[in-house]
Amino acid sequence: MIKKSLLLGSTVFMLAACGTTEDEPAEDTTEDTTEETVDETEDTAEETTDDSEDVVIRVASHLPPMTDIVEIADEVIAEGYSVELVEVSDNIQYNEALLNEEVDANFAQHEPFMQMFNNERDGNLVTVQPIYNALVGFYSPVYDSIEDIENGAEVAIPSDPSNEARALATLQSVDLITLDPEVSVFEVTIDDVVDNPYDFTFTSIDLLNLNSAYEDGVELVFHYPTYIANVGLTTEDAVFLEQDEDNIFAQTLIAREDNQDSDEIQALADAMTSQEVYDFLQEFVDQGHLKRTFEVNE
After folding, report:
1. Do 94 and 237 sit in the same domain of this protein?
2. Residues 143 and 128 grouped into a single domain
3. What CATH number is attached to the domain comprising 81?
4. Are residues 46 and 128 in the same domain?
5. Is the residue at 297 inside a domain?
6. 217's torsion region: left (phi>0), alpha (psi -120 to 50) or beta?
7. Looking at 125-129, 186-190, 291-295, which range is the least confident one?
8. Residues 22 and 99 occupy one common structural domain
9. Domain count, the chain
10. Global pTM?
C-alpha cells in the first residue's frame, strides 16, 4: 500500500491552475511558508528498512485526480521502487518542498506555474513528463457561439497570474484579442493586450467566484470543467474551448535539475505513463474534462 505523509503550512490557498479535478492552475503566490512534516523522514529517494529494500520516491501532490495518479504509480512502478505520496494543503508547499529536497518530485501544476516559481525563488525545477491537459474554455449565459459575441462585452477572467495568462491565451487562440508577442505566454496580463477589436471590458475575479459571475450574467466567463459543472454546464456548453495543441498548460510531473535524469525519476515517469494511468484517466476524458498528453510507455 502506498505510504503517505503530509506537509502542513501556516497558510492555506486554493489551488486553481494546478489542482483542479482536471488541474490545473493556481492561486499564484510563492512566498515562503512554514512547513513541518508529519512523517519525520527527511531523506528522499532513500532505501526503506523493510525486507523489500525498495527505493522510496517521495512525490508531493495536492488534489485528485493528481493524488490518485501518484497512488496508481506506486502500484505499477518497477520492482525495486515504491512511491510515497506527500499530500500538501496549498499550492506553495509542493514547490518549496521540491526546491528544498524534501521530496523528489511533485505533480500538481503546469509548466507556466513552475516557471513563475523558478523566477521568483531562483529555483531549479524542471518539467519531466506532461500527463493531462484540462479542457478549459469560456462560457456565456448570453452567447451560443463566437459569432454571437458583441462589442463591449464583459469578460470575467481569473485574478491569479497563471490562470489570467491562460485565459488571455485562450482568447487569443480564437482570434478575439492579440497579445504582445514580446511577452511570454506564461506571464501575459490584461496590460499586454495590444489589440482588442471587440472592446472587451475585462474583470478579474477569484477563480472560485467565476460561477457567480456567470450566474450574474457576465457575457463571457473563463472556467474549468469541474467548477462550471456546479452550475449545470459541461464543455459541450462552452462558447469556445482553449486551443492548446502544444499542451503548454498540461499538468506535468516536475523534478529538479539535479535529479531529473536519475533512475528514480525515470521509473516514476514510466509508472505515471502506464496503461493503468491511461485507463484511469479515461473516465475524465469521457466526461469532457481533459485530454491525455502521453502515449502509454510499453
Report:
1. no
2. no
3. 3.40.190.10
4. yes
5. no
6. left
7. 186-190
8. yes
9. 2
10. 0.76
Q: What is the pLDDT of residue 4?
A: 64
Beta-bridge partners for 125: 256
DSSP string, 68-101: HHHHHHHHHSPTTEEEEEEEESSTTHHHHHHHTT
Contacts of 258 (CB under 8 A, 6+ apart): 124
- Residue 141 inside a domain? The answer is yes
Q: Kindly state whether residue 298 falls inside one of the protein's structural domains.
A: no
Type of residue numbered 29: T
- Quote the percentage of the chain above a pLDDT of 90: 70
Q: State the residue range of the domain holding 271.
A: 3-134+249-292
| Predicted pLDDT of residue 32 | 39
Residue 2's pLDDT is 52
62 shares its domain with 85: yes
Let me know whether 176 and 196 are in one domain: yes
Q: Is there a contact between 107 and 131 (Cβ–Cβ < 8 Å)?
A: yes
Q: Which distant-in-sequence residues (6+ apart) come within 8 Å of 206 by Cβ?
A: 158, 159, 160
Per-residue pLDDT averaged across 194-212, rounded? 96
pLDDT of residue 291: 95
User: DSSP string covering 229-262, please?
Assistant: GGGT--GGG-SEE---TT-TT-EEEEEETTTTTS
The amino acid sitting at 62 is: H
Determine the length of the chain.
298
Note whether 26 and 288 are within 8 A (CB). no
When pLDDT is averaged across residues 150-155 and rounded to a whole number, the result is 98
